[in-house]
Design goal:
The protein is α+β, with helices and mostly antiparallel strands. The chain has 2 domains: 15-130, no CATH class; 133-172, no CATH class. It is built from 5 helices and 6 strands; from the N terminus they run ααβαβββββαα. β2 and β3 form a beta hairpin. The longest helix has 13 residues, at 155-167.
């Protein structure tokens, strides 16, 4: 079943193909495929640590390293360098990948209104996709994503999750 329009499709048949973009989308009819890409490199863990994502968390959420061709295929893009860290999104309550987003190593660059050069589309996703969820909370992330009991939460944990959510574009 296609999550977006509630239509049924077999493995390779995907409504996304109509617009010329074929993003990786698991219809749920196949038994969990192996995750795309390879294990993260030591440099990936170092870069993730700078963004407050430690090694155990990166492994728990199953982040993967992908080359440009694999990354572009996962998010249905035809141009640009899409090498980077693949972020799998799973169907609720399952281990099956719904789709991927890619944190690109070398995003395209653009000039903003102030004349400054800045990265464009650091996170690459399938065309037409916005946020998968419309709301969340710091406590929900700590409880359900980090699996940390409430008694062990520190103010630093809450601040770290809050900064991460703001970096991803979430607002209060």
């Amino acid at each position: 079943m296609n999550f977006f329009d509630r239509s049924l499709h077999q493995n390779g048949n995907n409504k996304e193909a109509k617009n010329g973009h074929q993003a990786y989308f698991n219809s749920g009819f196949s038994i969990g495929p192996a995750l795309a890409g390879s294990e993260l490199a030591a440099s990936d863990f170092t870069a993730l640590e700078a963004r407050w994502i430690d090694g155990p968390l990166a492994l728990a959420v199953q982040l993967r390293r992908v080359d440009s061709l694999t990354g572009a295929e996962l998010v249905g893009r035809k141009s640009g360098n899409h090498a980077g860290v693949a972020i799998p999104y799973f169907f609720p309550g399952t281990s099956e990948v719904r789709e991927y987003r890619i944190r690109r190593d070398h995003p395209d660059m653009e000039i903003d209104s102030k004349g400054q050069v800045k990265p464009k589309q650091k996170i690459s996703q399938p065309p037409g996709r916005g946020n998968i969820r419309s709301s969340t909370s710091v406590s929900e992330v700590l409880e359900k994503c980090v699996n940390k009991p409430q008694a062990q939460w520190t103010q630093a944990d809450k601040n770290r999750v809050g900064r991460s959510l703001r970096t991803l574009g979430w607002e209060r």
